[in-house]
Amino acid sequence: MKKITIIGPGRVGESAAQIIAKTELCRELYLLGRHQGKAKGIALDIQESAPLFRFDTCVDGGADPAAMLDSDLVIFTAGLPRKPGMSRSDLVDANLEVLHGALDSVMRYAPNALLLIVTNPVDVLTYHAWRQTGWGRHRVFGLSGVLDSARMASFIARETGFSVKD
Question: What percent of the chain has pLDDT over 90?
Protein backbone atom coordinates (compact mmCIF):
# COMPACT_ATOMS: atom_id res chain seq x y z
CA MET A 1 0.00 0.00 0.00
CA LYS A 2 1.38 3.38 -0.94
CA LYS A 3 -0.42 5.85 1.35
CA ILE A 4 -2.58 5.73 4.47
CA THR A 5 -4.23 8.71 6.17
CA ILE A 6 -5.41 8.61 9.77
CA ILE A 7 -8.05 11.22 10.60
CA GLY A 8 -7.87 11.93 14.32
CA PRO A 9 -4.38 11.59 15.79
CA GLY A 10 -5.61 11.13 19.37
CA ARG A 11 -4.75 8.11 21.51
CA VAL A 12 -6.24 5.53 19.15
CA GLY A 13 -4.99 7.27 16.01
CA GLU A 14 -1.49 7.66 17.40
CA SER A 15 -1.34 4.00 18.45
CA ALA A 16 -2.53 2.92 15.01
CA ALA A 17 0.04 5.20 13.37
CA GLN A 18 2.88 3.70 15.39
CA ILE A 19 1.90 0.16 14.44
CA ILE A 20 1.39 1.04 10.77
CA ALA A 21 4.76 2.80 10.58
CA LYS A 22 6.69 0.08 12.45
CA THR A 23 5.20 -2.70 10.33
CA GLU A 24 5.74 -0.71 7.11
CA LEU A 25 2.15 -1.29 6.03
CA CYS A 26 2.55 1.69 3.68
CA ARG A 27 5.24 3.97 2.29
CA GLU A 28 3.54 7.23 3.34
CA LEU A 29 1.48 7.85 6.47
CA TYR A 30 -0.35 11.13 7.06
CA LEU A 31 -1.96 12.12 10.37
CA LEU A 32 -4.78 14.59 9.84
CA GLY A 33 -5.98 16.51 12.87
CA ARG A 34 -7.78 19.71 13.81
CA HIS A 35 -4.61 21.17 15.31
CA GLN A 36 -1.62 21.48 12.97
CA GLY A 37 0.97 21.47 15.74
CA LYS A 38 -0.35 18.39 17.53
CA ALA A 39 -0.68 16.28 14.38
CA LYS A 40 2.74 17.41 13.14
CA GLY A 41 4.33 16.72 16.55
CA ILE A 42 2.95 13.19 16.82
CA ALA A 43 4.07 12.46 13.26
CA LEU A 44 7.54 13.80 14.02
CA ASP A 45 7.83 11.65 17.16
CA ILE A 46 6.96 8.54 15.16
CA GLN A 47 9.22 9.49 12.23
CA GLU A 48 12.17 10.12 14.53
CA SER A 49 11.78 6.64 16.03
CA ALA A 50 12.45 5.09 12.59
CA PRO A 51 16.18 4.51 13.20
CA LEU A 52 15.41 2.80 16.53
CA PHE A 53 12.68 0.53 15.19
CA ARG A 54 14.19 0.22 11.71
CA PHE A 55 11.31 1.23 9.46
CA ASP A 56 11.21 3.31 6.29
CA THR A 57 7.63 4.59 6.39
CA CYS A 58 7.55 8.35 5.81
CA VAL A 59 5.30 9.91 8.48
CA ASP A 60 3.87 13.44 8.32
CA GLY A 61 0.99 15.25 9.93
CA GLY A 62 -1.00 18.43 9.82
CA ALA A 63 -4.43 20.00 9.48
CA ASP A 64 -4.67 20.21 5.69
CA PRO A 65 -7.15 17.68 4.27
CA ALA A 66 -5.59 18.07 0.81
CA ALA A 67 -2.55 16.17 2.12
CA MET A 68 -4.60 12.96 2.11
CA LEU A 69 -4.60 13.16 -1.69
CA ASP A 70 -4.42 9.73 -3.32
CA SER A 71 -4.57 7.78 -0.05
CA ASP A 72 -5.24 4.08 -0.53
CA LEU A 73 -6.74 3.76 2.94
CA VAL A 74 -8.30 6.36 5.24
CA ILE A 75 -8.71 5.37 8.88
CA PHE A 76 -11.21 7.46 10.84
CA THR A 77 -10.38 7.61 14.57
CA ALA A 78 -11.58 11.17 15.30
CA GLY A 79 -14.37 11.85 17.74
CA LEU A 80 -15.27 12.51 21.31
CA PRO A 81 -14.11 10.00 23.90
CA ARG A 82 -16.69 8.24 26.04
CA LYS A 83 -16.93 9.72 29.53
CA PRO A 84 -17.77 7.74 32.69
CA GLY A 85 -21.43 6.79 32.77
CA MET A 86 -21.86 7.59 29.09
CA SER A 87 -23.07 4.86 26.74
CA ARG A 88 -21.68 4.42 23.26
CA SER A 89 -25.03 5.46 21.85
CA ASP A 90 -24.68 8.82 23.66
CA LEU A 91 -21.81 9.54 21.30
CA VAL A 92 -23.87 9.17 18.13
CA ASP A 93 -24.83 12.79 17.44
CA ALA A 94 -21.48 14.34 18.34
CA ASN A 95 -19.40 11.81 16.44
CA LEU A 96 -21.71 11.81 13.43
CA GLU A 97 -21.13 15.54 13.12
CA VAL A 98 -17.35 15.03 13.13
CA LEU A 99 -17.64 12.16 10.65
CA HIS A 100 -19.86 14.01 8.18
CA GLY A 101 -17.46 16.96 8.05
CA ALA A 102 -14.47 14.70 7.48
CA LEU A 103 -16.16 12.62 4.79
CA ASP A 104 -16.53 15.63 2.51
CA SER A 105 -12.73 15.91 2.47
CA VAL A 106 -12.23 12.16 2.07
CA MET A 107 -14.54 12.06 -0.96
CA ARG A 108 -12.76 15.06 -2.48
CA TYR A 109 -9.11 14.12 -1.89
CA ALA A 110 -9.17 10.32 -1.59
CA PRO A 111 -12.10 9.27 -3.79
CA ASN A 112 -10.64 5.82 -4.50
CA ALA A 113 -9.61 4.94 -0.95
CA LEU A 114 -10.87 2.24 1.34
CA LEU A 115 -12.46 3.74 4.46
CA LEU A 116 -12.05 2.14 7.89
CA ILE A 117 -14.18 3.52 10.75
CA VAL A 118 -12.81 2.98 14.26
CA THR A 119 -14.67 5.71 16.18
CA ASN A 120 -17.57 4.64 18.40
CA PRO A 121 -20.32 3.78 17.92
CA VAL A 122 -18.65 1.95 15.05
CA ASP A 123 -21.71 0.27 13.58
CA VAL A 124 -23.74 3.49 13.34
CA LEU A 125 -20.84 5.57 12.01
CA THR A 126 -19.89 2.94 9.44
CA TYR A 127 -23.44 2.80 8.14
CA HIS A 128 -23.62 6.60 7.87
CA ALA A 129 -20.21 6.73 6.16
CA TRP A 130 -21.36 4.13 3.63
CA ARG A 131 -24.56 6.08 2.97
CA GLN A 132 -22.89 9.50 2.71
CA THR A 133 -20.08 8.39 0.41
CA GLY A 134 -22.26 6.24 -1.80
CA TRP A 135 -19.29 3.88 -2.09
CA GLY A 136 -19.74 0.15 -2.46
CA ARG A 137 -19.90 -2.02 0.64
CA HIS A 138 -16.50 -3.46 -0.27
CA ARG A 139 -14.88 -0.06 0.43
CA VAL A 140 -16.36 1.07 3.78
CA PHE A 141 -15.53 -0.99 6.87
CA GLY A 142 -15.94 -0.74 10.62
CA LEU A 143 -13.59 -2.16 13.25
CA SER A 144 -15.33 -3.12 16.46
CA GLY A 145 -15.32 -5.78 19.09
CA VAL A 146 -11.54 -6.03 19.20
CA LEU A 147 -11.21 -3.75 22.22
CA ASP A 148 -14.05 -5.47 24.06
CA SER A 149 -12.51 -8.88 23.36
CA ALA A 150 -9.08 -7.70 24.52
CA ARG A 151 -10.55 -6.26 27.73
CA MET A 152 -12.36 -9.52 28.47
CA ALA A 153 -9.23 -11.60 27.83
CA SER A 154 -7.21 -9.29 30.07
CA PHE A 155 -9.82 -9.50 32.84
CA ILE A 156 -9.99 -13.30 32.65
CA ALA A 157 -6.20 -13.60 32.71
CA ARG A 158 -5.93 -11.27 35.69
CA GLU A 159 -8.67 -13.07 37.67
CA THR A 160 -7.43 -16.61 36.90
CA GLY A 161 -3.71 -15.92 37.07
CA PHE A 162 -3.19 -17.17 33.51
CA SER A 163 -1.12 -15.35 30.93
CA VAL A 164 -3.02 -13.40 28.26
CA LYS A 165 -0.88 -15.31 25.75
CA ASP A 166 -2.61 -18.54 26.80
Answer: 78
**Top-level class of domain 3-160:** alpha beta
By the 10 Å C-beta count (0-12 exposed, 13-18 middle, 19+ buried), 68 is classed as: buried
Q: How confident is the model at residue 136 (pLDDT cuts 50, 70, 90)?
A: very high
The larger pLDDT score, comparing residue 157 to residue 66, is at 66
Residues 1 and 44: their CA atoms lie apart, in Å, by 21
Convert the pLDDT of each residue in 33-49 to its tens digit: 999 999 999 999 999 99
Spatial contact of 92 and 62, defined as CB atoms under 8 Å apart: no
- Per-residue confidence (pLDDT) for residue 89, from 0 to 100: 75
The DSSP bridge partners found for residue 130 are none
Taking the C-alpha atoms of residue 125 and residue 101, their distance in angstroms, rounded to an integer, is 13
Of the CA atoms within 13 Å of residue 95, those in its CB half-sphere come to 28
Instruction: Break the chain into its structural domains and give their ranges.
Output: 3-160
Q: How buried is 142 (Cβ within 10 angstroms: 0-12 exposed, 13-18 middle, 19+ buried)?
A: buried
